[in-house]
């Protein structure tokens, strides 16, 4: 006996998409019974627009201040966390203005032709949180990763001071992130973090 196809749930798909800036991916569509033929039909009629292979947006979705971050997160098949300077900017830490979205993906992530800046690293559960509708590295991990990637020491110092002043993290969490087991940038980053903490505590 043939299995019946799941009924198309356009309303459910659109509700999901609207909760994340209007963006969705092919798997989201299939989960809601929107098979490829129907997906292409709605692209032709203007209900959806295709932005990247397998990534779509509701044409009439309202804009969001974090559109670029939501798009990057959906593009990663929800496997990424916004990180480095993009995460600093989202938290309002330091004065950095990244030109491209930076995000961290698992080492196994293999999607190519990225329009974003990709960093491959394993993130533990306690190193990621939801913030402004997207997954993002927690402040301590964000600051340490930005320092390792070359963000200026003065910006790291400012980010540490602001994060501590706003109780977004603690000196212990910052030191733990910079001194984590197997971290290859530990020797370069740990002294910078220690100095920034000492300056912030004066």
State the gist of this model.
This protein is of the alpha+beta class and 202 residues long.
Please describe what this structure looks like:
- The protein has helices spanning 10-18, 26-31, 36-44, 67-75, 84-91, 139-148, 153-165, 171-178, 186-200; strands at residues 23-25, 48-52, 55-58, 81-82, 102-105, 117-120, 128-131, 134-137.
- The chain has 2 domains: 10-58, no CATH class; 68-200, no CATH class.
- The protein is α+β, with helices and mostly antiparallel strands and 202 residues long.
- Helix 5 (84-91) crosses helix 6, helix 6 runs antiparallel to helix 7 and helix 8 runs antiparallel to helix 9 (186-200).
- It is built from 9 helices and 8 strands.
- The strands form 3 sheets. The chain has a 3-stranded antiparallel β-sheet with strand order 1-3-2, sandwiched between helices. Strands 4-5-6 form a 3-stranded mixed β-sheet.
- It is elongated and about 60 Å long.
Coarse morphology? elongated
The major β-sheet equals: 3 strands, antiparallel
| Count of separate structural domains | 2
**SSE string, helix = H, strand = E?**
HEHHEEHEHEEEEHHHH
The counted number of beta strands is 8
Give, in spatial order, the strands making up the sheet with the most strands: 1-3-2
Oligomer: single chain
């Amino acid at each position: 006996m043939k299995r019946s196809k799941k009924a198309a749930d356009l309303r459910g798909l659109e509700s999901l998409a609207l909760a994340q800036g209007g963006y969705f991916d092919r798997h989201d569509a299939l989960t809601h019974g929107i098979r490829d033929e129907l997906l292409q039909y709605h692209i032709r009629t203007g209900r959806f627009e295709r932005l990247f292979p397998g990534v779509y947006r509701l044409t009439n979705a309202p804009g969001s201040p974090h559109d670029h971050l939501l798009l990057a997160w959906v593009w990663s098949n929800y496997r990424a966390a916004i990180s480095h300077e993009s995460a600093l900017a989202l938290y309002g830490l330091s004065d950095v203005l990244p030109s491209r979205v930076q995000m961290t993906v698992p080492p196994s992530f293999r999607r190519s032709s990225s329009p974003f800046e990709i960093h491959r690293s394993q993130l533990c559960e306690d190193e990621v949180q939801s913030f402004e509708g997207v997954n993002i590295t927690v402040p301590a991990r964000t600051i340490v990763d930005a320092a390792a990637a070359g963000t200026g020491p003065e910006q790291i110092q400012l980010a540490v001071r602001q994060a501590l002043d706003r109780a977004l993290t603690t000196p212990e969490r910052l030191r733990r992130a910079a001194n984590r087991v197997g971290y290859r940038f530990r020797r370069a980053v740990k002294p910078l973090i220690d100095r920034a903490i000492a300056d912030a505590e004066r």
